[in-house]
From TrEMBL:
Protein known as: Aldehyde dehydrogenase
Highest taxon listed in the record's lineage: Bacteria
Keyword Oxidoreductase: yes
Pfam family, one: Aldedh
Protein family (similarity comment): Belongs to the aldehyde dehydrogenase family.
Signal peptide: none
Domain Aldehyde dehydrogenase: 21-484
GO molecular function terms attached to this record: oxidoreductase activity, acting on the aldehyde or oxo group of donors, NAD or NADP as acceptor
Record InterPro entries: Ald_DH/histidinol_DH, Ald_DH_C, Ald_DH_N, Aldehyde_DH_dom
Entry-linked Gene3D superfamilies: Aldehyde Dehydrogenase, Chain A, domain 1, Aldehyde Dehydrogenase, Chain A, domain 2
SUPFAM superfamilies: ALDH-like
Entry keywords, A to Z: Oxidoreductase
Length: 505
């Protein structure tokens, strides 16, 4: 019998690999096997990483170089990461259950493109702006500067480990900050590799630090640390609330990208074939573990049965299987706990009156007897007040609800604590745009889904988040504003001091 060697990956603190006595297993969701281990970092490791980041920031080795120099180093890192893309894809595949097609194109492909976009922003961003000269209250010139914040903490979820971390690290570095990352404990490998590539390609030691550890210990310490000036978080709404609370003691800047319960609104003039495929793509990509998944399909009552029939017919063609196989469309879910949680939601929905049109169970036999699988599931007869329509299931589960007017569709879509994404399917652009205007959501896609474009802002309404990532203003959230005013007249008679010093000579 051959023994598979399990690689141990170290944290990156101050440019060095750092280990601890305790290890955390990295598990392949395909079969539940342990494929690697990482150190279980504690609060002391977060403290060491923040200290390294702080001293590097204060040294000016990154914060005080020109934006052009930072852009040039970031481009070199991007090129080296691109050359190592196969390895990054492999590290993502083994840990997070993305299929090889998704991991190549989306998880790693987008991540590296977006990192280069942030390098570009370093060069084009408006670092200082002259305000109009003023004669009142004094003759003066003012300049508004954008300066880095200092130490930025980034806390990332399991689903797009490199992409969503680089959405924070990219603009933070472009702006001259130093960063401490706390990846999700299940999926830290690609970011650890990226940090090593960054150090090998000109990023000074201590500018980018990665502490592997649990959320409740390492994550909580980072969110509360007094020397961290900003926390950028992507994850569940529940943990987002806790992050905000922890950050409030030291009034940190906070951006939050949280959960969603995206509606996919099929208007009655839609191309039903396009809409059916689009709704399935919106829901089942990466086993429904995407914050912008369209998990609630809203369909006109008169088209309901026909549309469900098409959805089921097309969903039956989704190939579930090993994530390494290029023919696989959908892989497993992240872990056993999440698998059980998803199946529980389906069981409760059935008890509440929902009809299982497809799936609803764990696939059986062969590879499915190990690992964490849930079959693509479509439920009809769902009401918007049922938990399966209100709560984020984060699995391959689509619920279909019917409506009788566009107003009712908009009302159901907006009747949610979340407001991250929505899609609208229609052949009438005017009608689709006017429907989009009434949707309470940070992202609305017409006749498409999952359109993540780094050149436009991304974020949520309501309990889906706070602030925006991406877009030309992405660096705003990683800088602070300083206004410097130079008084141009030093004649004491022109100053307003007499308001206070009325008895002075
Ligand atoms: P999660 O909230 O469980 O964990 C996210 C991160 O927070 C992990 O690194 C975890 O270790 C850390 N964490 C947990 N408890 C913490 C604490 N008390 N203090 C500090 N950090 C803590 O989320 P998840 O299960 O990894 O990811 C799924 C969730 O993320 C879903 O809700 C999904 O919608 C959301 N998400 C949102 C976006 C977006 O852009 N809006 C993108 C992807 C995922």
């Amino acid at each position: 019998m051959t023994t598979v060697e399990i690689e141990h990956h170290l944290m990156r603190i101050g440019g060095r690999g750092v280990d601890t006595d305790q290890r955390m297993p990295i598990v392949d969701p395909n079969d539940g096997s342990v494929v690697a281990t990482v150190p279980r970092g504690g609060a002391e490791h977060v403290d060491a990483a923040v200290a390294a980041a702080k001293s590097t920031f204060e040294s000016g080795v990154w914060s005080a170089v020109t934006p052009q120099e930072r852009a040039s180093v970031m481009r070199r890192i991007g090129a080296a990461a691109h050359a190592a893309a196969d390895k990054l894809v492999e590290l993502e595949l083994v840990a997070n259950g993305a299929t090889v097609r998704q991991a190549t194109g989306f998880h790693i492909g987008y991540a590296l493109d977006h990192f280069n976009y942030f390098a570009e922003l370093a060069e084009t961003y408006s670092w200082q702006q002259a305000a109009p000269s003023s004669t009142s209250p004094a003759l003066s010139e003012s300049v508004v500067h954008r300066e880095p914040i200092g130490v930025v903490g980034a806390i990332a979820p399991f689903n797009f480990p490199l992409l969503l971390t680089l959405w924070k690290v990219g603009p933070a570095l472009a702006a001259g900050n130093s960063v401490v990352v706390k990846p999700d404990e299940r999926t830290p490998l690609s970011m650890l590799e990226f940090a090593r590539i960054a150090e090998d390609n000109g990023l000074p030691p201590g500018v980018l630090n990665i502490v592997t550890g649990t959320g409740s210990v390492a994550g909580a310490r980072l969110a509360a640390h007094p020397d961290v000036g900003k926390i950028a978080f992507t994850g569940s709404t529940q943990v987002g609330r806790e992050i905000m609370r922890l950050a409030s003691d030291t009034i940190k800047q906070v951006t939050l990208e949280l959960g969603g319960k995206g509606p996919s609104i099929v208007l009655d003039d839609a191309d039903l074939n396009l809409a059916a495929d689009g709704v399935l793509f919106g829901c089942f990509l990466y086993s429904g573990q995407v914050c912008v998944s369209g998990t609630r399909a809203l369909v006109p009552t008169r088209l309901h049965d026909e549309f469900v029939r098409r959805l089921v017919e097309r969903a039956k063609t989704i190939v579930v299987g090993s994530t390494r196989d290029w023919d696989t469309d959908m892989g497993p879910v992240i872990d056993a706990k999440q698998q059980e949680r998803i199946l529980d939601y389906i069981r409760s929905a059935e008890v509440g009156g929902a009809t299982v049109e497809l799936g609803g169970h764990r696939p059986e036999g062969g590879q499915f007897d190990r690992g964490f699988w849930v079959a693509p599931t479509i439920l009809s007869n769902v009401r918007n007040d049922m938990p399966i329509a209100r709560e984020e299931v984060f699995g391959p589960v689509l619920v279909v609800m019917s409506y009788d007017s566009d107003e009712e569709a908009v009302a159901i879509a907006n009747d949610s604590d979340y407001g991250l994404s929505a899609s609208i399917w229609s052949n009438d652009n005017e009608r689709a745009l006017s429907t989009a205007a009434r949707i309470q959501s940070g992202n609305v896609w017409i006749n498409n889904a999952h359109q993540i474009n780094c050149q436009v802002p991304f974020g949520g309404y309501k309990q889906s988040g706070l602030g925006r990532e991406l877009g030309p203003n992405a660096l705003d959230s990683y800088t602070q504003v300083k206004t410097v005013q130079l008084d141009l007249n030093n004649d004491p008679g022109t100053k307003p001091f007499g308001i206070l010093l009325s008895h002075a000579d």
